[in-house]
Structures are given as structure tokens and as C-alpha cells.
């Protein structure tokens, strides 16, 4: 079955393009999928436009839209295992992690099925008895939804669920590297019964289809999750037609640890915060900022545990981390470690490809800890998107906050301390979209997610994640129309 879905029909690319999708665990081709080009992108955008303008989906009563979202959630759970297996093959992440992703997006669809029923409209008292004034909300229109490769299903669903709930029509573009779970998602959306043209799927390189998705006059909104440079390019293109944009970009996320913590717990939180999914997480806590008096002990503990993380095939029982997503990405991570060492960092553990026959075909890299770092280094300031932890030390709370905020990004951060007031104080002072106290990583559909600074703008999840896809309109009705009296001639 072909993989492009346009105007309710599965079809191949007009120019016949295809692409091999590779399993990062062993480098084998998983599937050859259709690869869209500009003409397919144009067709998808126009199908979404027609569906929106005809009102087929936006005019569907909100209760029916909510019911379809709930049905999507049921279908996701029905196919949970198959989707999770697909995600693990495609991304290399462990099967338990992929199952968590499917459960998360199920919860997101359920959340927006309820949230969209909350009536946001209101009447405004304008102080006149001859006027009815209302503020109402409407879908924005045609939305281009562009997702990265690290959490393909999750990042796409955080966009699709609120966009559809609000009554928009959508064109989905997953990363060319990891499109397979999104293909499954769109099959489920088609099965659930969203009308033709409301959901369209393009597989294809960002360079080929991106300019259409972000620049075509028929597109009203672009929601993008990905890297900083791509985000900037998208904002520039979208600016030509003043589209609404939501961009969720990278992060260089601090984990601040004070000396009063339980050391074993702190080690565990830091370890998970940075090395989950081989560090390929936008909110990975890659910057350890630790109070000087416990720094040696904490770093030794993290390094020892990092050296024991079981790398391997995400399908195998007991494997704790998979490979990096591609050979090119591993090259980038290796180059960053070399850069860090040349800048004066001290290698504590990792810093190489792992040994082991079963790890040679895939794109593995050992969890790496670099001590003796400082904020002037590029390894501390730039997103590596790999399993690399840098270590900086502090002596005062003010210094810890200053270091944590010394980043162009501002996606997420954490603080660990036994002092409740200090935890709240530091969390309040941190300029990051999410802050965890004595934890690192959890997110829920009910709470907004997004970045400050160069981590992006706009929010996903929570009520604000729905508002991104709604226009606010003021309707003023004069109940006793008569001459205004401004001009008398
Ligand atoms: P990229 O920015 O390379 O790509 C993201 C998506 O944008 C892909 O689908 C890509 O297509 C597409 N794209 C590329 N060029 C264009 C273009 N000119 N116009 C439109 N779309 C385009 O990011 P990665 O896939 O490498 O993902 C990693 C990045 O994502 C990291 O920086 C990470 O921090 C960030 N991220 C942020 C999150 C957040 O919530 N803030 C969450 C997860 C990741 P293709 O690759 O198929 O060519």
C-alpha cells in the first residue's frame, strides 16, 4: 500500500520517488516508502484547503469531533503493540519506551477530546443595551505539522490531536528518517472516519516539501518541532505570508544538584535525565551543575552507572538504551566529544563507540561524561543531541541559578535539593519552559510544554496547546441599528 495520503486516498508520489527507511540497530532497510516532491506537497495543501473551506471538518459539531478523537485513542490502544514495535525498529529506542510513547499519545487524544468541549467563548459587557458583544473561537485553517525523528509518533500527535480537535485540516510531515509510526497513525485516522482532505500525509525530505508546507499561501499555520537552524528557516519562509508559527526547538538543559541531596537518588535522576534514548531528547539534562562539595562523588556515581547502561537491540529484554538514529548523527556526536576534549574537558567515561560484536553494525555510542567544563565551552552551550553529560561546579545558590540560565535555549531544567523552599526559589528563577524539582523528565497532557529563548515559541499540550490552533474573534451586534452621527454632512 502506498504511503502518501492525500484527499482521502493512499497513493504513490507523482514523480515516483521512494526512500529506504533504515533500522538504526543494524543498518538494514526496513521498508522502502514513497517520497513526496513539491507537486505532492501542493496537492496535499490544496486538499486540506478545500476541505477546510467547504466546512466539511471545521463545521462538524464539536461533540462529533471529540468523539472521533476518543475513537482515535481507542484505535491507538488496539494497535499499541504493533505501533510500539514499529517505533522501536525505526528509532532504535527500547520497546518499553515505545509503549510509553503510545500510551502518552493515547492520553493526549483523550485529553483533547475533553478539552475541546470546554466553552471558551464569552460575552462582553460593553455598557450598552443595544449591543451584543461576543468573543468566539474558530479553527485557524490549514495547518502544516512537521515533526522530528527522536519521538516521531509522540511529537506528531502532540500537534495532530489539538489541531483536529479545534477543527483545522492538517498536512503531516514526519522526519524522512522515521516515518513509519506516522504512517500507522494516519491509517488509524482514516479508519476512525475523519473526512477526506482533513488529514493528509506527506513523506519526503524537508528540503523538497518544506518550502511548500511553510510558504504556500493556502497554509495558515505551521507547527514545527526540530532543530534551531531549521526552525529559523521555517519562521523566515512563513513570515512572507505572515503565517502563525509554533516552533519547538532544541535545548541545553541544566540539572542543578545541591549538596543536601541523597546521593544515590541524585545519581539516578541525573543518569536518567541525560541518557534516556541515548540523549536524543530535546529536554535531555545534558548540563550537570553540581555543588562543589559533592561534585566528585556525584560525578563518580554517574560515571560508574553510565558505564553499566546496557546497550543493544531495543527489542531485547534487559536492554536499556539503543543506538543513535543514523551514522551521520553519530558522526556529529563524536565530533562534539572531540571538540569538548579540545576545549579542555576531562573524559570520565565513554568517549568512544562501544565494544561488543552485536553493537558493530548499528550506530551506537557509549554514554559519555565530560568533567572540568565551564560555560564558555561550545560543548556546554550547543545541543549535541547525544549521550554526553558535561559537568560544571558551583558554590552558591546565586551562582547555580546564573549558570542554569546562561544558555541561549530555555526548554527544560531541573533542581535537586532537600530544601523545599530553595527548590521552589531556584525553580522560580530558572528561565526554562519546564522545571522539575527533585525529578527530571516527566510530562503530562494537562500541562503545557514549550521553550523560552531560542528553544522556541508557542506551547504544546495543556489548554494553551489547543489555543495555538484557534483564532479568537470579536463579534459585535447592534440590536437597534440607526445613524451613527459621526458625519453629519
Ligand atoms: P530537523 O530540524 O533536522 O528536522 C525536523 C523536521 O523538519 C523534519 O521532518 C525535517 O525533514 C523537516 N525539515 C527540514 N528542513 C525543512 C524545511 N526547510 N522546511 C520544512 N521542514 C523541514 O530536526 P531533527 O529531525 O534532526 O530533530 C532533532 C531536533 O529536534 C533537535 O534539535 C531537537 O532538540 C529538536 N526537538 C525539539 C523538541 C521540543 O519539544 N522542543 C522535541 C524533539 C526534538 P527531513 O529531516 O525529513 O528532511
- What's the oligomerization state? single chain
Helix content: 25-40%
User: What is the number of helical segments per DSSP (H or I, 4+ residues)?
Assistant: 15
- Main sheet characteristics: 7 strands, mixed
> What is the gyration radius calculated from CA atoms?
24 Å
Beginning-to-end CA distance, first to last residue: 70 Å
> Major sheet: order of its strands?
14-15-16-13-12-17-18
- Strand percentage lies at 15-25%
Low-confidence stretches: none
The average pLDDT score comes to 97
Give the strand tally: 20
- Tell me, briefly, the overall form: globular
Pairing-aware structural class of the strands and helices?
alpha/beta
Bound molecules: NADPH dihydro-nicotinamide-adenine-dinucleotide phosphate
How do you describe this structure in short?
With 489 residues, the protein is of the alpha/beta class. The chain contains 15 helices and 20 strands. NADPH dihydro-nicotinamide-adenine-dinucleotide phosphate is lined by residues 146-151, 155, 173, 175-176, 205-207, 210, 213-214, 225-227, 230, 233-234, 248-251, 282, 383, 385, 411, 451, 455-456.
Topology:
Blueprint lengths: L3 E3 L2 E3 L6 E5 L6 E6 L3 H17 L7 H17 L1 H12 L3 H21 L6 E3 L6 E9 L2 E5 L5 H14 L3 E5 L6 H13 L6 E3 L4 H10 L5 E5 L2 H12 L4 E5 L5 E4 L5 H13 L11 E5 H15 L20 H16 L3 E4 L18 E4 L6 H4 L6 E7 L2 H9 L6 E5 L3 H10 L4 E4 L18 E2 L4 H6 L2 E9 L11
Parallel strand pairs: 7-8, 7-10, 8-9, 10-11, 12-13, 12-17, 13-16, 15-16, 17-18
Antiparallel strand pairs: 1-2, 3-4, 5-6, 6-20, 11-19, 14-15
Helix pairs in contact: 1-7, 2-4, 2-6, 3-4, 3-6, 4-5, 7-8, 9-10
The site of NADPH dihydro-nicotinamide-adenine-dinucleotide phosphate has 33 residues, from helix 7 and helix 8.
Amino acid at each position: 500500500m502506498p504511503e502518501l495520503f492525500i484527499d482521502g486516498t493512499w497513493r504513490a508520489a507523482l514523480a515516483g520517488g521512494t526512500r529506504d527507511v533504515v533500522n538504526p540497530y543494524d543498518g538494514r532497510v526496513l521498508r522502502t516508502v514513497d517520497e513526496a516532491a513539491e507537486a505532492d506537497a501542493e496537492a496535499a495543501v490544496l486538499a486540506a484547503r478545500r476541505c477546510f473551506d467547504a466546512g466539511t471538518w471545521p463545521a462538524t459539531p464539536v461533540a462529533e469531533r471529540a468523539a472521533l478523537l476518543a475513537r482515535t485513542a481507542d484505535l491507538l490502544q488496539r494497535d499499541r503493540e504493533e505501533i510500539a514495535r514499529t517505533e522501536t525498529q525505526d528509532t532504535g529506542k527500547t520497546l518499553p519506551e515505545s509503549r510509553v510513547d503510545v500510551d502518552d499519545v493515547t492520553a493526549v487524544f483523550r485529553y483533547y477530546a475533553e478539552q475541546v468541549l470546554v466553552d471558551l467563548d464569552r460575552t462582553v459587557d460593553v455598557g450598552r443595551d443595544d449591543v451584543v458583544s461576543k468573543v468566539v473561537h474558530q479553527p485557524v485553517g490549514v495547518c502544516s505539522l512537521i515533526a522530528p525523528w527522536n519521538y516521531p509518533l509522540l511529537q506528531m500527535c502532540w500537534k495532530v490531536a489539538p489541531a483536529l480537535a479545534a477543527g483545522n485540516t492538517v498536512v503531516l510531515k514526519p522526519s524522512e528518517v522515521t516515518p513509519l509510526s506516522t504512517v500507522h497513525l494516519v491509517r488509524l485516522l482514516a479508519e476512525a472516519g475523519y473526512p477526506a482532505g482533513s488529514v493528509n500525509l506527506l513523506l519526503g525530505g524537508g528540503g523538497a516539501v518544506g518550502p511548500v508546507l511553510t510558504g504556500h499561501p493556502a497554509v495558515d499555520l505551521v507547527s514545527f518541532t526540530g532543530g534551531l537552524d531549521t526552525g529559523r528557516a521555517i519562521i523566515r519562509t512563513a513570515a512572507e505570508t505572515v503565517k502563525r508559527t509554533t516552533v519547538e526547538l532544541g535545548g541545553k538543559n541544566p540539572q542543578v544538584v545541591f549538596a543536601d541531596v541523597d546521593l544515590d537518588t541524585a545519581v539516578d535522576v541525573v543518569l536518567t535525565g541525560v541518557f534516556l534514548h541515548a540523549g536524543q531528547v530535546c529536554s535531555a539534562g545534558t548540563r550537570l551543575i553540581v555543588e562543589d562539595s559533592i561534585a566528585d562523588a556525584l560525578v563518580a556515581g554517574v560515571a560508574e552507572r553510565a558505564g553499566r547502561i546496557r546497550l543493544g537491540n531495543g527489542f531485547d529484554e534487559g536492554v536499556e538504551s539503543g543506538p543513535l538514529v543514523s551514522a551521520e548523527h553519530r558522526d556529529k556526536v563524536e565530533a562534539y566529544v572531540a571538540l569538548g576534549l579540545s576545549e579542555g574537558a576531562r573524559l570520565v567515561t565513554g568517549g568512544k563507540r562501544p565494544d561488543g560484536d552485536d553493537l558493530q553494525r548499528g550506530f551506537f555510542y557509549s554514554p559519555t561524561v565530560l568533567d572540568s567544563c565551564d560555560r564558555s565551552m561550545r560543548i556546554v552551550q550547543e545541543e549535541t543531541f547525544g549521550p554526553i553529560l558535561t559537568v560544571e561546579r558551583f558554590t552558591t545558590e546565586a551562582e547555580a541559578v546564573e549558570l542554569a540560565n546562561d544558555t541561549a535555549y530555555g526548554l527544560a531544567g531541573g533542581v535537586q535539593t532537600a530544601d523545599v523552599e530553595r527548590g521552589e526559589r531556584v525553580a522560580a528563577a530558572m528561565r526554562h519552559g519546564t522545571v522539575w524539582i527533585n525529578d527530571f523528565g516527566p510530562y503530562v497532557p494537562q500541562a503545557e510544554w514549550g521553550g523560552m529563548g531560542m528553544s522556541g515559541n508557542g506551547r504544546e499540550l495543556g489548554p494553551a496547546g489547543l489555543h495555538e490552533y484557534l483564532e479568537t474573534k470579536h463579534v459585535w451586534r447592534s440590536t437597534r441599528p440607526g445613524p451613527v452621527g459621526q458625519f453629519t454632512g
